[in-house]
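Holo prediction — nicotinamide-adenine-dinucleotide.
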Amino acid sequence: MSQTFHNSIGGRWVPARSGRTFKNLNPATGEVLGEFPESGPEDVAAAVDAARGALRSWQLTPAPKRGELLYKLGALIASQKEDLARAATREMGKILIETRGDVQEGVDMAYLAAGEGRRLYGVTTPSEMPNKWAMSVRVPIGVVGVITAWNFPFAVPTWKIFPALVAGNTVVFKPSEETPEMGWHLARLLEEVGLPPGVLNVVQGNGPNVGWPIVQHPGVDVLSFTGSNAVGTRIATEGARLGKRVSLEMGGKNGVIVMDDADLSLAANAVAWGAFGTTGQRCTATSRVIVHERVHDELVRLVVQRAQALKLGNGLDAGVEMGPLVNAKQLERVSGYMKVGVDEGAKVSAGGARAAGEGLEHGFFFQPTVLTDVQPGMRVAQEEIFGPVVSFVRVKSLEEAIAVNNATPFGLSSSIFTGSVNAAFTAMRDLATGIVYVNHGTTGAETHLPFGGTRGTGNGHREAGHTMLDAFTEWKSVYVDFSGKVQRAQIDNN
Ligand code: NAD
């Protein structure tokens, strides 16, 4: 019998008020992993009440003390890393080395955010008047609604929740309905290190019944979202109408440029890892290779070789290199793009279909796929497929490669492989994405650098790094006049 899990609201573990539940499935085997509350607006309202109730005392807790909880949390997560990674692989399918990385990112983020408890730097500056002091300080905003995707089920929530908490906000968190168990773990771990009741509340369920009520609830001041453009855009529109701060991390269509002086074996390895790692279901996945015509055929050969050699299976099994897609809908979506590509003139040089074979019967497996003869304007070169599919676009020059890279609706990550310093620096300057790699694929962000993208990928915010507090704090400017007089700025001294 599968385990039954509850929401965490005001420090209590409770079922959905409706009593309804949904099943959490293993995408590699179809096995039921657990039953989670299928919550609704009434559960969200209770969570927001709890978060508002906890706000004052959490804000008055000294920031270094808030940080200390995150230090303890980092150590606790590290001590349970293997179990957490296995749970993540079970519920969303990516292979164990990747879920270990996902959990490690949570550890790194806990320590990074913990340090902010002893920084949270403000700015002091001279006043233009005598005997007057001027400074600006960061203050928490209030209740933060966190809504996340399933592909980094542990790391991504930590990019949002830890900075929000250390800054003195309280949180209502809706994990993806594909990965409710990792959301549950986060709440349990924070409870174990002594986070006061109501400071983090977790409400499980789907987008329309839990996510949207969080977006609309007047008691939620900030919305921090990671997911698709379709949903993010709706949230941004509604958030603007309601006057909320909205931070969005959305899709990508990330390109690797490979120049004719590149180390092709290195580039092929990086493309294979970037395109097929996490079964292509990363926002930073390599989904386009923009390759110089002189090395095009050789690079295709190397990447096809790597694609065809990958071992598919249950991510918990030793030796497996690529797991399943997360659900039947994703399988349908990725399969659908094969027809779209071929109809537009692309050639399938590897893969292109659902994967069959021993051990794959009950999961949502898709073959690692290489599309060639892709033109920059084709849908497979413009739209986020979110599966193990990489499209090759042939170019004649660096200028053309950069122009092709920049001509999509997204701007998350990009990369160039070259031996030329001049080409590398030109690309670093001209690639219009939030993240640029040189001689490294499009994935592999580190938590102490800002993360996010331009154009359709985001709305100007950056998570983690030295920017981590920006979405979750307001600036307050404070003037202290000790002159004993009414000093009129801009008037009395001019
Ligand atoms: P999704 O947009 O379908 O869902 C994301 C979250 O939004 C889920 O929790 C979902 O339940 C919720 N949601 C759905 N409808 C909603 C609604 N009407 N109101 C409020 N919430 C709603 O995305 P997904 O399939 O879970 O994730 C894949 C997407 O996430 C891809 O586009 C990927 O690129 C993106 N992603 C981006 C980043 C990044 O940092 N840029 C990181 C990971 C994933």
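READOUT: The first helix runs from residue 41 to 60.
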